[in-house]
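Morning run. Coffee first, then this:
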Amino acid sequence: MTQAILIFLCFLVISALMITRKLPAFIAMIIMAVGFGLLAGLPLVGVNEAGAQIGVLHAIIEGGVMRMAAAIGAVIFGAWLGRMVTLTGVTKTLIRKAAEFGGDRPLIVGFALLAAVTFLYTNLIGLGALIMIGTIVLPILLSVGIPAVSAACILLLGLSMGFCFNLFQWTAFVNIMSVPLEVVQQFATILFFITAVGSIAFMFIEYKRQGIKYAFSAPVSTDEDDGEQALPKGIRGVLCMITPLVPLVMVMALSLPIIPAFIIGLIWLSIFSSKGFGKTMNMLTKAAFAGVNDAAPVIFLFIGLGVLVAGVTNPAVTAIIHPVIVSITPTTRIPYILFFALLAPLSLYRGPLNLFGLGGGVAALIVGSGIIPAVAVMGAFVAIERLQSNTCPTNSQNVWTCSYVGLDVNVVTARLLPYMWAVAGVGVIVAAFMYM
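And here it is:
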């Protein structure tokens, strides 16, 4: 009992330091995992009777980093493709085509750009990508009279919808909760439509409430292209613009692994955007280095998450806290719905239901305990991720977007919370009927 109390106190202290931003998330998760292992009585270095490494340094730190290797690989190749999509001019062309489609009708422009951002974010990742898109999208939205808070929310909703089909996210879910990729793919597709309904409701309700307001507090220049080239004309340009679909088709229709699917996307875009072998190779190299830079925060977050998952699922730790998890985890459908739907806001501020924060370890612990099926755990946490993905004030994308349009980050959180809480709740209900 003493060990369980100490582990719980460690959890609370490190959580508080992370939420108050005294510790970066990935460092906090590593410290927490090491603390759990030491409090459970594991040595720093040691072997069991069978000769297997059981020490904290090997089993938790080394094992945790390797646990997320597939997800980290997917992040790197996805970020590489995302940078190529930008450098070849696909990003800017898609956004401007969407804006031209909407003309001077604010609601139509909003929907068109929401769709464009959604499409792009099936491949993009990182704050760099958001900045490149946001500096094009936000001035267009604001220039047609969409209020700043609505414009910020449209950008973040598009990001969230695109993430439903983002392959690196799928890999992370598979790694954390040990469920088949096909199951994640199916449930993410359902969540996409639920999120789309919530986003459409937001657009209509907020348009009716806010109307049109011509005001702009950020620089309106969108001429900086970060080295983009002009997209080829004609059929080659069209084939370039469908690049974000290529990896998805490879995975969903042909069942290819995720990293080869990204490589095929890179080859596809390189062929149809090519302006000579030398230029294409230079662009691929530039995109690779820039993509890794974009992905660096996510890579380190995944490293911390992998170490935390290894810590909480270590047999010595699990044996101590298993009784606590058993006592609070709902095991039937109605309690499951009430528990996860009502507590969904605990995904904010890197809380215990945030799959890319403390929740990654909590989810892995529940899966390891075997109290409810792993697919049910996946359903609940991935549904709740809908709320976290665009509403959490600690997200770098939220902070940058609000800063760009001159808003306090909590204003966007308050505006999106009712819609995304409802989306998460519906997702939990669907998961309950599918998996419980």
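DSSP finds 20 helices and no strands in the chain. Good start to the day.
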